[in-house]
Amino acid sequence: MHWQKIIIGGLCASVIAGCATAPRVQYGDATAIETTTVDFGSTDLQQIASKMVDSLLVFPPIVQVTNERRPVIFVDTIKNKTLEHIDTESITDTIRTKFLRSGKFRFVDMTKVDAVAKQFEFQESGMVNKSTAATFGQQIGAEYMLYGNFSSIVKKTGDVKDVYYKFTLNLMHLETGIIEWADEKEIRKISERSLFGR
Amino acid sequence: MIMSFGKMTRTIKVYLCFAIVIVAFSATGCATSGIEGSATVVTGSAGQTVSTKYVIINNKRLARGIQIVDIKPDFVGDVLRASVSVVNKYSKTLNFQYKFSWFDENGREIDPDSDAWTPVLLYGNESKEIQGIAPNSSAKEFKIKIRKL
């Protein structure tokens, strides 16, 4: 009896001690698979970016173009048609970074047009040495536009929640209006509540 | 203070057995080692591509379920493409994760940690081809790491 009380007392003391301390913080692996909830997560972003970039890099008509030169692309928006708040610009940022690092494409940034115009205004205001000022009207025009859609289908019963994501990306040639490449990435995440914990 | 096992009361023995079983179970879930497959591509004297491949098994338990059947590197344009065939030797569904690492001709890793771990599902006895594309055209060697999910 005496020994039982000591063991139970020891267990209770360790549990209470755990509750009283601050939560333990540590660095994790940014490339690790994250399955905290069924919502859109870092692993989904990484999978989508990876598939889109790999697909475009090896598409035969695009390989033909990139063998001769580096085409100029601009990124339009990805329409978020899911019910969650998802920063789709974050996905396109990752995709654009990977494309740029492949050395096969060049990009123009439409979100920076105002900032660039302001800088040109300043450089032509007379404050900047004319020989070092950037020449107006020399920007390269984009040839292709990257745009897409992100949708989801959510199904829920008492214990199971099933979320299906579909990310579609298209590459359109501006002059002809032809979609030269398109691909989609599907992701399914399932959350199940079982009776006996894990 | 220290008692022999025989002299302990029955309830103490039961508690001790539980504790040993719990510790044993938690220890089995700790292994994070996996399987690695690797291939290097060089251009031979006659201009043909020669590839050397090898597989390292760090986790025998995982290797009983997942087998790397073939590693096929090839070039698309000047970009290295890795195709790794894996097969599930069990009849139940297996969940695992993989990651590619890319190296240039000097053996130095290109963009370390830019590839993320990707989850894969293999149904019972199913074979699947996992593909990866190098981040740029300087890659001449790749490594695939496979781990339990």
The computed structural class of chain A is alpha/beta
Oligomer classification: heterodimer
pLDDT < 50 stretches of chain B = none
Task: Calculate the mean pLDDT score of chain B and round it.
Answer: 85
Mean pLDDT, all residues of chain A: 92
Provide the CATH top-level class of chain A.
Alpha Beta
Spell out the helices and strands of chain B N to C. Answer: HEEHEEEEEEE
Into which percent range does the helicity of residues of chain B fall?
A: 10-25%
In the CATH hierarchy, the architecture of chain A is 3-Layer(aba) Sandwich
- CATH level 1 class label of the largest domain in chain B: Mainly Beta
How far is it from the N-terminal to the C-terminal residue of chain A, by CA? 34 Å
Number of strands of chain B: 9
Overall morphology of chain B: elongated
Order of helices and strands of chain A: HHHEHEHEEE
What can be said about the biggest beta sheet of chain B? 6 strands, antiparallel
Give the CATH topology of the largest domain in chain B. Immunoglobulin-like
Most extensive protein-chain contact, per-chain counts: A-B, 25 and 26 residues
Which fold name fills CATH's third level, the topology of chain A? Answer: Rossmann fold
Span of the ends, CA to CA of chain B: 44 Å
Any idea what the shape of chain A is? elongated
Brief sketch in words of this structure:
The complex is a heterodimer of chains A (198) and B (149). Chain A has 198 residues and is of the alpha/beta class. Chain A is 35% helix and 27% strand.
What does this structure look like?
The complex is a heterodimer of chains A (198) and B (149). By secondary structure, chain A is of the alpha/beta class. Chain A has a single domain, classed as 3-Layer(aba) Sandwich (Rossmann fold), CATH 3.40.50. In chain A, 35% of the residues lie in helices and 27% in strands. In chain A, helix 2 crosses helix 4. The relative contact order of chain A is 0.15. Chain B is of the alpha+beta class. Chain B folds into two domains: 30 residues; 114 residues, Immunoglobulin-like. Chain B is 17% helix and 50% strand. In chain B, the strands form two sheets. In chain B, strands 1, 2, 5, 6, 7 and 9 form a six-stranded antiparallel beta sheet that branches. Chain B has a three-stranded antiparallel beta sheet with strand order 3-4-8. The radius of gyration of chain B is 22 Å and the shape is elongated. Classes of the chains: A alpha/beta (198), B alpha+beta (149). Chains A and B meet through helix 1, helix 2, helix 3 and helix 4 of A and helix 1 and strand 8 of B.
